[in-house]
Amino acid sequence: MPALQNPITGSAFYMQCASCNWHQRDSLAVKVLLEGNMPSFLKWFVPVHATITSAEGKNINAVYYVSPDYLSIGNDADWARVPLTPMAAQKIADTLHCFLPTRKMVNEIYKAAAVKLAPVPMYAFRDSTVTMWQHHLIIEGQRKGKKGLIAGIKKDVVISEKIVKDNKPNRVAIYGWHLFNGNPIQPLYTGHVNWYVDYSHGIRLVYHKIKVNGKWMDYKTLLQDKTLRKLICDEADCNFYRY
């Protein structure tokens, strides 16, 4: 693998990884991200609100904080979104005290997004590094400098009970890529092995503490509560917390 530049820009990362396999790309991405090579706007999370009604008819309100865009490498002048395996994403999430979203959270993030863009499917060399770079450039052409919470541009790598229930081991769950009508192109899916990554995958980080009726709770505690988990999860068991 080419020698690491420090700090590294988004375009330089993709140039260095042009001939990398998935494991080399993953390893380099984890290294540079944990060194702090990400644009500053990703370090300021934004609130998303959720409300449910308890069996007693009382409203339960929550606020969770999400990254305004998908995980990216570089600086404010030269950065790029980088698809990752769930294993790499989990290492970064753990270090930054975050977790990956659920299907329900992806839907709510889309509703809350200030910048909604149309999905752009690509059909050739889907898992190549070059295609990942090209897709980032296409999204930036669509975005045209608009700022704020963005959605509709990637399929999210999510946590899901389907990982536990799937008959095949070592799966990744993906979901999302919403159209303007609010419907996702990608239903909740665990058909890919966990090392498969393509241009359409994105890593959205969520801060691990969620404010529920004004009190902070760890997301795992929330998911273990049969009532409160409905704030962030729409599956039956919600029993898969991390990769």
Offer a quick outline of the entry.
This protein has 243 residues and is of the alpha+beta class. 27% of the residues lie in helices and 26% in strands. The protein has helices at residues 10-16, 22-34, 86-95, 103-112, 129-143, 162-165, 219-224; strands at 46-53, 59-66, 72-74, 79-81, 98-99, 115-116, 150-151, 155-158, 171-178, 184-193, 201-202, 206-207, 209-212, 215-218.
Topology:
Layout: H1 10-16, H2 22-34, E1 46-53, E2 59-66, E3 72-74, E4 79-81, H3 86-95, E5 98-99, H4 103-112, E6 115-116, H5 129-143, E7 150-151, E8 155-158, H6 162-165, E9 171-178, E10 184-193, E11 201-202, E12 206-207, E13 209-212, E14 215-218, H7 219-224
How would you explain this protein's 3D organization?
With 243 residues, this protein is an alpha+beta fold. The protein has one domain (10-231). The chain is 27% helix and 26% strand. The protein is built from seven helices and 14 strands. The protein has helices at residues 10-16, 22-34, 86-95, 103-112, 129-143, 162-165, 219-224, and strands at residues 46-53, 59-66, 72-74, 79-81, 98-99, 115-116, 150-151, 155-158, 171-178, 184-193, 201-202, 206-207, 209-212, 215-218. Strands 1-2-13-14 form a four-stranded antiparallel beta sheet. α2 runs parallel beside α3 (86-95). The model has no long low-confidence stretch (mean pLDDT 95).
